[in-house]
Amino acid sequence: MAPRVLVLRAPGTNCDLETSHAFELAGAIPSSIHIRELRSNTVLAKDFQILVIPGGFSYGDDAGAGTLFAHQLGHFLGDTLCEFRDQGKLILGICNGFQVLLKSGLLLPHDEDGPVATLTTNTCGRYLDTWVHLRAFPHNCPFVGALDRIMLPVAHGEGRFLVRESWIREGIDRSGQGVLRFCPSTENPGQTDYNPNGSDLNIAGLCDPTGQVFGLMPHPERHIYPTQNPTWTRQENADSADGLQIFRNAVAWFV
User: Fold this and answer.
1) Whole-prediction pTM value?
2) I want to staple 203 with a disulfide (CB 3.0 to 4.6 A). Which of 156, 165, 178, 226 is the partner?
3) Where are the domains of the chain?
């Protein structure tokens, strides 16, 4: 049977419809649920195999991007999401959803000094809206699967992955959790400005140790049709859509 996807939204979420459509194209059955509904009835999560937090500006990002949504998850739904993961299910966070997962401690557990890493203001000091080239290092993350090089759009003001200490950075690098990283294009291998937000380790996407929880700053739901890529007429595989494969990989985990 096709896996069911819980698209978890909050006030300010604005990419839920596109994310639901992407999962439909990939063969899943999505349902959009407000966080208030899940908080009042956590047993709802048992009916789903994939949970996704889409992009947007949850709660207006008034206390920092994803901060209030992360507080909601950590304090009210932390046990529910850990149980969801421990049952072999998948959790995905896109852009604002990545910020939520990281700040809630679900991707990288906090220690006695607090978060070990965060997503903060881009080094350029402004909002970015552009296409980027990415290299995949699948490790044990089913979302990334057999991907190698892909191209996706980014749209964020606080997408810089910043690690608190150098020893933590080295641990993340060695663990293989940085499964999606900014890279130069194959046409311009000498490019030096390929990391648009200044992220440590060039990280654009990160998974937890199990590989089942994955967050990324680029928007795969915005590249599910070939013609969404501005260079599609010049691509060798002009009929492919890189973002759609991430959703297909998640669905294939269950079918």
Assistant:
1) 0.96
2) 178
3) 4-252
